[in-house]
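Researcher: Please generate the 3D structure of the following complex. Treat every line as part of one assembly.
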Amino acid sequence: MSEPTVRWSRKDLLGIADLSAAEIQLILDTASSLQEIERRPIKKVPTMRGKTVVNLFFEASTRTRSSFEIAEKRLSADTLNFSASGSALEKGESLIDTALNLQAMAPDLIVIRHKHPGAPHLLARRLRAGVINAGDGAHEHPTQALLDAFTIRQRKGRLAGLKVAIIGDIEHSRVVRSNIHLLQKMGARVVVAGPRTLMPVGIEKLGVEVAHTLDEAIADADVVMMLRIQLERQGRMAFPSIREYFQMFGLTAQRLLRAKPDAIIMHPGPMNRGVEIASDVADGPWSVILEQVANGVAVRMAVLYLLSGVHEEAR
Amino acid sequence: MAATPKPILIHGGRLVDPSQRLDGRYDLLLEEGVVSKLDERIESREGIETIDAAGLVVSPGLIDIHVHLREPGFEYKETVATGTRAAAAGGFTSVACMANTDPVHDNRSVTGHILAEAERWGYARVFPIGAISKGLLGEELAEIGEMVGAGAVAVSDDGKPVMNSELMRRALLYAQHFGIPVIQHAEDLYLSAQGVMHEGEISTRLGLAGIPGSAEDVMVARDLILLEDSGGRYHVAHLSTARSLDLVRQAKRKGSPVTCEATPHHLVLTDREVAATSFSTQTKMKPPLRSESDRLALIEGLADGTIDAIASDHAPHHADEKDVEFNCAPFGILGLETTLPLCLDRLVHPGLITLSRLIELLTIGPARCLNLPVGTLAPGKPADVTLFDPDREVTIDPEAFRSKGRNTPFSGWKLRGAAVETIVGGRRVVV
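Model: Done. Output below.
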């Protein structure tokens, strides 16, 4: 682990777009040093004892929410889970009012998942607590990109110079946006591919290459990242059928031969087996999908740790 | 407007009236509600109130042909009283208000209510625009003749487009009986769909659903084709794209009876503002803030005469309605109290258009679009006058607005140029 060259000074983690390469490096290095905790017989450190973290999930999430919750508990924070169903939100309360009510209970950090882009930014402007974006619509999902980068770095030893292909519904994916920003800041080359109907206008202006076939995208790739296809897009003029989608953009062992021999396969989950990825690929030796999940905890511990430190000093 | 006002002599100002191609030092005498005399020097006499206009510009009263006064039905956002007071504060002596009220302005009783309220408060003239279709549903024609009889000056389903081509064709035909224009909010709803901002690099970065420029363009193109067959008069509201502008430019060359307006915000801001303000809902309106190339094309359209009017699309909303996630906020921002400073500071002072051209776009230009009997200081015409100081420094402060709304992206902007006084029907308006 290299010496960190920057100190963390942000109150919030809203996206990767605003971060510098040095800040990304700092989070990844912090995650590396915290990962050892999960190998201890008692997987807990007192770092965040007495801190309160609210997990505010307005959208269903199993993986991300559990991952944050475990990370918080390993750091000894007190956690409160708040999900949209059965909450005041369903009774017509505005996001701001919900947040101000939570604020009145003096949490240190708020982790928010919301279907609308910019919802975490709205809270961050108004609340004293630090805000962590756990996914805002199709905008960003910074901790996912960080855990992806952490996983790639673990397997490949570096990010710079790698070719990363990201395949699927580019338009509606927050994972792809955060990954594009992060990977390019760290010197990787990103190629995106998917149906033209799910390729957002101007994506090339983010610095990525756009491919229109799976084969072209994954040729000589070091990393192939498959995105979840939301089945409800079918019938909304995005693609005619799952069968045709799989024929065009589904990842099979045969097609994977075009990638580098040591290429790794990633997926942010949840997977649709047989839609965007064949089962033998998802479960095969190239797959690091479960490592991504494992690394998510360490990366989120790092983010929580860094942000709670800022809050401490602000007081 | 009750008793005959006292005669007013406006003395020593720079009078700019594009309707008469005047720009120079003139005096102006207003008597019995009309302009009685315009000359290089007019002597004052007993019983005349003199306004010293030295250092000020004397213009025909400014006209905003696209505002939402929200009454009846949405009085918590704005009323005829507060909206016209905002107009006066911003230098406007006439406004034309859109029909998306509740009940919808699709019948003469609503026309009558709006005009009665305007008369009662007297801050500015109000020219009501009736709905094209009953209930703004886009299905059957509203009682256009009766509304015109009661004082409506045009028809529009603004807020919504007329999607049905057959209804649009019939509106263009039917409106000809009354000599009024049909105003289109040009937006193909299938293309705009769930969009909340301009479709392009920025919407892609922010993960917000985009409204492509083509959503406007296909509608303008369709309407211009219908217009060729139907005749009548067609006006494009808040035109926002380079391509729509070009379509209008070509149609005008062919002699089509088409006019169009652009808003100050589309002339000053672009979609980058949504990112720069980190999802501020004050940057959310329809049509959305477009790309820089669209913005530059619009400025060219002002200069070359393709654009006939600047109109603000003044759209008041309650603060709580805008204090939500970007996707959830209503579309629209205020305009009446920011238009003049923005246009002076961002268009005239940098030399993009002349002062005279700006005044044309805010007076006789919009008056011609809707056939309004105002917008000129020719003797015998209504004594509607705006005095403004083109060099006065102002800081936009929403808390000081006369409008009920506070929804503006221009809060805190320091601008050069502001209205000093308005006169409506020969009477000085106190705001």
